[in-house]
Amino acid sequence: MKPNIPEKYQHLEQIGVTYKRIACQADHPRVYYNLNNDGYVICLYCNKMFIATESTDFKNEGVYVHTDE
Hints:
There is one protein chain. The N and C termini lie far apart (28 Å). 0% of the residues lie in helices and 46% in strands. The chain contains no helices and 6 strands. The strands form 2 sheets. The chain has a 3-stranded mixed beta sheet with strand order 1-5-4, with no helix packed on it.
């Protein structure tokens, strides 16, 4: 799936994920997100954008965990 990212968000750091569920803990409390129908989601704490890639498994209930370590 190629994400449909609006132009106003294209400047954000983009991180490809392997699952539709994301846990972001980048120097802030852990928060959970799901990719939206356009194939991306933006962390409201750190403004990192998580995007679907060709290898993203939308059927698996796994969670992609992101930290700044």
